[in-house]
Design brief:
Arc Repressor Mutant, subunit A, 13 helices, 306 residues, five-stranded mixed β-sheet, alpha/beta, D-Maltodextrin-Binding Protein, domain 2, 3 domains
Length: 306
């Protein structure tokens, strides 16, 4: 199969839409649709189910999608090695991450990395903890940043740092001077929740999941930008690690009070890659840079001694 067709198949599978794949690849939707139809005709198979809600890969289609991703991944790895042999690291690093890490950690890592390797580009997609793991598992991402779970089948953990969950609030909030808070203490005040909060029981504990599910937050959002803007204005409490608020915590504008529940107090952030797939040299070098910065920023994000 031609490399272009592989990219089309991968993008349509990822987005579930020819239109969205077209926007991502900057190729006309008609060209993508025509190539996929021709491939289906050549194979004598239906690769995607056409539904009102979008396109979904069939069982046979999933086999082709997996092949496409392996082939594209290996090709990128070869190009990266060729670039390094010529004195310049090249290629793309695809990162799946928790939203809060896009505020400070990843921008710092990318900027520092590109000072030495300007030929490398990046693609960042945010997701909930389980979604990050899925994206690395199905080769939609090279590197994942997520909370540690009991197991990551087929994945290798490159780095692990403590990342306890906190109640993040303005320094003038009535609960700001507390040394530790139960999530139930916070529910008496205005609460800001991430949109995926109903699915975090495996990571944060069933008591946290039940409490957040039964609460009535004044805002539910899937972006830290909205949450952070409101917290900075004293409008409510959010439940986050310190990583997305390092500068504001250091400045004293916000405080992050550790949660008393067991799982939130013992969370760890892990950097994961596929254990069995070949990674490009660009991914390998960036992963090392990211691990170093995470260790550094973990110290910066640690709570001050009270």
């Amino acid at each position: 199969m031609h490399a272009a067709v592989l990219k089309y198949v991968d993008a349509v599978a990822r987005f579930g839409s020819v239109r969205r794949a077209s926007q991502e690849l900057n190729i006309s939707a008609s060209a993508i649709n025509r190539q996929i139809l021709q491939l289906e005709e050549r194979l004598g198979l239906e690769l995607f189910e056409r539904r009102a809600s979008g396109l979904k890969a069939t069982a046979n289609g999933l086999l082709i999608v997996e092949h496409a991703r392996r082939a594209l991944h290996d090709f990128d790895a070869v190009l990266s090695e060729i670039g390094e042999a010529q004195g310049q690291l090249t290629g793309q690093v695809r990162i799946a991450t928790l939203d809060s890490l896009t505020v400070h950690i990843l921008p710092r890592a990318i900027i520092e990395f590109r000072k030495q390797h300007p030929g490398v580009s990046f693609r960042i997609v945010t997701s909930d903890p389980a979604g990050v793991t899925r994206q690395v598992s199905n080769d939609s991402a090279d590197i994942g940043l997520t909370f540690e779970s009991q197991a990551h089948p087929g994945l290798a953990v490159l780095n692990k740092v403590p990342a306890n969950l906190c109640a993040v609030m303005h320094a003038k909030h009535p609960l700001a001077k507390a040394k530790r808070l139960s999530i139930f203490d916070c529910l008496a005040h205005d609460i800001i929740l991430q949109e995926d909060s109903s699915r975090v029981g495996a990571f944060l504990g069933v008591e946290v999941e039940a409490a957040t599910r039964d609460s009535e937050p004044f805002l539910i959002t899937n972006t830290i930008v909205a949450s952070k803007g409101l917290i900075l204005r004293g409008a409510g409490i959010g439940f986050f690690t310190r990583f997305g608020f390092i500068q504001e915590l250091q400045a004293g504008t916000l405080v992050a009070v550790p949660l008393a529940e067991d799982k939130p107090a013992s969370l760890a952030l892990v950097t994961i890659i596929a254990a069995t797939r070949r990674v490009s040299r660009a991914v390998e070098v960036f992963a090392g840079c990211l691990s170093r910065i995470l260790e550094d920023e973990t110290s910066a994000a640690s709570p001050p001694t009270r």
